[in-house]
């Protein structure tokens, strides 16, 4: 009997020790785990209908998230502004968005970090008019559709300003981007401010004309990845893993362009030809270029804090935001990118214009 009690006691001790060691191991940084160990947490990444955001379908399809030990669920939002609201309310952990749409949340005190540059729009955003509208000044008194409070609204105001016009000079029609293109094609509105792939679809209307493009404003519309304050505080290794997965996708895109386009087209539910055309308006960034855009100070649109401040000043002047951020540098954190750079270097990204 005494021998039996000793055996039971020994077994209980082993179980307790095993539980203790396992518990300690789970609290360690994920950098101490193997590449095959996937995080138990599922992070939701909000995306919407924009070419550079579709690049996330590559690491998803090619299982690069799993390779880097992070569990990511892509959450698609048909209406772009819904994705922004979902991030601001904590319903998604990460979001791909245009920099102008990161300003209001920052001013309102929502905690986040900008950790990755996805692209600069280089023709992926544009203002298109129907037959007979040949210039921006021709839009006076005409109906123009786009989504209120988004980057396209900002882009429209910039376009109008080049012709010394304001929103008051046109009949502004508030429609989501996904609804603006069909409305334009149906003839419900005279013009529309759109991003790809909606922009290319709108230009299929006979006699339509591209009046203004983001090619006219290089660097004005950067698209980035934001992570929530909670994720930044609690899961820095997972953020690094997400960024590594993204650049694994870029490497795959360079080496296997046809399959990468197919991965994106499948996720976007458009044809591969449409996907290739849509991507031609996005200038993608290497690891080093991402870091330089955040850290290399310059009074030009190559420097993200400068760009963000100029956009904020413009948005404030047209009363779309109540104030300008105190220091736009605080909105960006290149720490994760620098760690990625140390491990993988900075390789070329696809030239989407080819």
Automatic annotation (TrEMBL):
Q: Which family does it belong to?
A: Belongs to the bacterial solute-binding protein SsuA/TauA family.
Annotated signal sequence is: 1-23
Q: What is this protein called?
A: ABC transporter, substrate-binding protein, aliphatic sulfonates family
Task: Give the stretches traversing the membrane.
Answer: none
Quick one: where is this thing mainly located?
periplasm
Which organism is this entry from? Answer: Ruminiclostridium cellobioparum subsp. termitidis CT1112
Keywords, comma-separated and alphabetical: Signal, Transport
Do you know which PROSITE patterns this protein is assigned to? PROKAR_LIPOPROTEIN (PS51257)
């Amino acid at each position: 009997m005494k021998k039996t009690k000793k055996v039971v006691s020994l077994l209980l001790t082993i179980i307790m020790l095993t539980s203790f060691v396992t518990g300690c191991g789970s609290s360690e940084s994920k950098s101490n785990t193997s590449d095959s160990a996937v995080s138990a947490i599922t992070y939701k990444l909000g995306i919407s209908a924009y070419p550079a955001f579709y690049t996330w379908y590559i690491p998803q399809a090619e299982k690069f998230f799993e390779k880097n030990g992070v569990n990511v669920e892509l959450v698609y939002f048909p209406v772009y502004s819904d994705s922004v609201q979902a991030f601001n309310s904590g319903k998604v952990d990460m979001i791909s968005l245009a920099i102008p749409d990161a300003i209001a949340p920052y001013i309102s005190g929502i905690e986040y970090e900008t950790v990755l540059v996805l692209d600069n729009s280089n023709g992926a955003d544009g203002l298109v008019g129907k037959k007979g509208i040949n210039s921006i000044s021709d839009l006076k008194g005409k109906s123009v559709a786009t989504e209120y409070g988004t980057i396209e609204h900002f882009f429209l105001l910039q376009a109008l300003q080049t012709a010394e016009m304001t929103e008051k000079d046109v009949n502004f029609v508030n429609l989501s981007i996904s609804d603006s293109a069909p409305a334009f094609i149906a003839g419900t509105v005279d013009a529309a401010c759109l991003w790809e792939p909606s922009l290319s679809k709108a230009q299929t209307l006979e006699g339509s004309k591209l009046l203004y493009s983001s090619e006219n404003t290089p660097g004005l519309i950067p698209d980035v990845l934001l992570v929530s304050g909670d994720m930044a505080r609690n899961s820095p290794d997972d953020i690094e893993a997400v960024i590594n997965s993204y650049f694994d996708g870029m490497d795959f895109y360079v080496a296997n362009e046809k399959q990468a386009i197919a991965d994106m087209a499948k996720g976007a539910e458009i044809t591969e030809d449409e996907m290739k055309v849509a991507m031609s308006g996005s200038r993608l960034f290497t690891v080093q270029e991402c870091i330089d855009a955040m850290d290399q100070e310059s009074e030009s649109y190559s420097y993200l804090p400068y760009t963000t401040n100029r956009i904020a000043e413009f948005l404030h002047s047209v009363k779309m935001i109540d104030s300008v951020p105190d220091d736009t540098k605080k909105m960006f954190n290149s720490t994760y990118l620098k760690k990625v750079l140390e491990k993988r270097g900075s390789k070329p990204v696809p030239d989407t214009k080819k």
